[in-house]
Design brief:
By secondary structure, the protein is of the alpha+beta class. The chain has 14 helices and nine strands. It starts with 10 loop residues before the first helix and ends in a 10-residue tail after the last helix.
Length: about 400
């Protein structure tokens, strides 16, 4: 099915128009959420994802210029109606009976959302790791958390000419790049006096999966280290385990693994770049607090998915518009548009936008041409000398004292 085939003759679209124009009852509306409606909404979302804006320029802070795309992968989950436990089972026990998990990719430089996949909350993130290399191209940079850590996947990124930056999973085997001897990381770091340490390593055991990369070790404050140890002990106790002394000692360090060459990513800037991963956490916060993707009381799978796909469709469109003007404003004036405020301004105009869409696409376009400049003026971030934004930190030179 293509966009051109989505006419009023399509039963799902015809039903939507009927609801708007004839004020269909709540029960009648509820009955229109069918498996066919789910397929229709999913196709609308897929079509939106396939359409690409021609940006005036993607975001170009200094640290991101070597990379074609910066792709961030993550997931978010939330409890749903217990009636859905058969299709979206949760962990059970003291946790949720039914839980929905959403897998998302976010291309930061162009502000593009993609790879939406709805699954049961019990499905681990690592199960998606083997599928991620298909979404990555040469010179892309991939940022992900420990939930997606898989040596084979890193090797596939490397073989495609792509880059990765991730937290290091301490139980992973690493060897010296020159001698191929297994490294006891705890023992090595025990004798390091400085705050930054870097080592060229080979990651992995199986020969076909072994990946040459850099292990970047950044010492953290005593307060941060103690908090990490507290959380590690709490988590281990919950799972019936006892963490080793070596693992507890490694809490003194932030450990990053990457195949990005040192001339493109100095060790001192590695954490600034990795912190970019938190942008997708902010994205999930906005999807929940503003788009309300996690709020649905329905016990029907079809209705839940229709509501979710509809909200995600709107999120995709808002992000595309935000990215278009954000790139232009940052690259020309080094100013930023607040993501949060931009979402809210769109939400305030949602009903007006819907009315214009029902008139014609041209009418909706004219409405946006007038309203978007008004929204942007109210959404530009103020500069704070004492606190740099993510983009400002990514734009700092390697020897800047603010990176220390």
């Amino acid at each position: 099915m293509t966009v051109g085939q989505l006419s009023l003759k399509h039963p799902s679209l015809a039903a939507m128009v009927q609801v708007i124009e004839a004020k269909v009852s709540r029960e009648a509306l509820h009955q229109r959420f069918t498996p066919q409606s789910v397929l229709f909404m999913q196709e609308c979302l897929d079509q939106a994802l396939r359409q690409k804006f021609t940006l005036p320029q993607s975001l170009n802070p200094t640290l991101l210029r070597p990379f074609r795309n910066v792709r961030i992968f993550d997931s978010s989950s939330w409890d749903v109606n217990p009636k859905l436990k058969a299709v979206l089972p949760g962990s059970g026990g003291g946790a949720s009976v039914a839980n929905c998990k959403l897998q998302v990719s976010y291309e930061f430089k162009r502000g593009e959302l993609g790879f939406f996949h709805v699954s049961p909350g019990i499905k681990p993130d690592q199960a998606y790791s083997p599928t991620l290399p298909d979404l990555v191209a040469k010179d892309d940079l991939v940022l992900s958390d420990l939930g997606y850590f898989k040596v084979k996947t890193f090797r596939q990124y490397h073989d495609k000419g792509a880059f990765f930056l991730s937290r290091f999973l301490v139980r992973t085997t690493i060897c010296h790049a020159s001698t191929r001897e297994v490294i006891d990381l705890g023992e090595v770091l025990r004798y390091i006096d400085g705050n930054v340490f870097e080592l060229s390593v080979i990651m992995g055991i199986e020969k076909k999966e072994q990946t040459p990369c850099r292990l970047i070790c950044l010492r953290v404050s005593e307060q941060v280290a103690n908090e990490r140890r507290r959380k590690l002990l709490k988590t281990s106790k919950k799972k019936g385990r006892t963490p080793s002394q070596a693992h507890l000692a490694l809490c003194d360090w932030t450990l990053l693994i990457s195949n990005v060459p040192a001339h493109l990513l100095p060790a001192m800037q590695a954490y600034s770049l990795y912190r970019l991963r938190w942008q997708i956490e902010l994205l999930f916060k906005q999807l929940k607090s503003i788009m309300r993707i996690h709020q649905s009381n329905t016990g029907r799978d079809s209705r839940l998915r229709c509501e979710l796909y509809g909200k995600l469709l709107m999120a995709v469109l808002i992000h595309r518009v935000h990215a278009f003007f954000q790139g232009e404003l940052w690259n020309s004036k080094r100013r930023e548009i607040s993501f949060d405020k931009f979402h809210k301004r769109f939400q305030e105009r949602a009903i007006l936008m819907l009315r214009q869409c029902l008139i014609s696409i041209e009418s909706a376009g004219r409405f946006l041409v007038i309203e978007i400049p008004r929204m942007i003026k109210a959404c530009i971030k103020s500069h704070q000398l004492s606190r740099h934004t993510t983009l400002q930190r990514l734009d700092l030179s390697p020897d800047s004292p603010l990176l220390a």
